[in-house]
């Protein structure tokens, strides 16, 4: 993905000489005296409810400032990002004049940046509408917030791009572009070379597609503890020979959401300095799960890099199959922490819905660190168990492992247990079963592709690896 096809990077206003003030007011709180001149807020019925905006007129009839309401419980969950609704203010520079006690101006500034996202690559005619610009509040690290938002924009762009422009080759190019930007090393193993590199599962899943399967391997840093990120890069998922119905294919361009998340997180980590003293490796098995005469079949028994045999009972459970080889390769280096991210199971959506990202981790301290971070940055995650009594569910009679146990029970847990079999060797392993999609627009989160768990990890990783 070249710079010309990316969304405009989020930025703050650079000058504040003429910036108009916006006062942030909780419900039931009186607006500051300087904002009440002429009694306009009361006369207009402003109450401070979430998302409410009151424009304040100047003596000449122009807009001299605004009040923005955050309701009476704005610190719960993502409602703290409600300030993104303030992008409906008139264009031009704005500054935050006041925030209620207990609120974080930095979080509100980040909400503003995240709300700037527009995916209009395929829109014809006219330029982008002008947006209001925010001056970064005093004492807030503008560069860090812009780096976080830019990483999130990269994730969103990659997920939102349709499969005709975001196949395995294009996902590789996006990784190469990022590697060039960050000064990282990158190697890619493609097509039949996967077999000679002992990555047979990635090859098996992707060999039916016009764009060859590949493993993308990016490295950054040469000293310190090792962090390995593994992202599922299924650029489109027909379901293979167990073909999905048409109604289930509509969002399958997002099946590379795990890859998009780890690339966005990599950019955040590098641009915020969080990788100082850390070795990072990013592995992305990039494939398209397609149908042709060479497609892998239900009933096939495949050998993995780790030596475990895998019985294919459903070709639509391909994500865990390609991740298995990537995890086994990564585990051979014995990283201090290995994290996989994947749009893996519908079972996770049934259990937790689209907004809450489930994760699995055997290490209590690591999991608790992530949960604290997720709460602090309003990037919700929920710990799920590697429930060992279910191990027998992934052990068929004819092979070591079953990629799709029957019965429909505990689908997300059994998928996580399957992956854990290949992560042996990593000091700690964490797996995210994300959705990667915002079904309807919310403050700072337009409908479409979205990052999940990445800001929580950015916040938590220094402590996890410290």
UniProtKB/TrEMBL annotation:
Protein name according to UniProt: Leucyl aminopeptidase family protein
Ranges of residues in domain Cytosol aminopeptidase: 314-321
Keywords noted in UniProt: Aminopeptidase, Hydrolase, Manganese, Plasmid, Protease
GO MF assignments: aminopeptidase activity
Entry keyword Hydrolase: yes
InterPro entries registered for this protein in UniProt: Leucine_aapep/pepB (IPR011356), Macro_dom-like (IPR043472), Peptidase_M17_C (IPR000819), Peptidase_M17_N_1 (IPR048816)
Tree of life domain: Bacteria
Pfam family, one: Peptidase_M17_N_1
Family: Belongs to the peptidase M17 family.
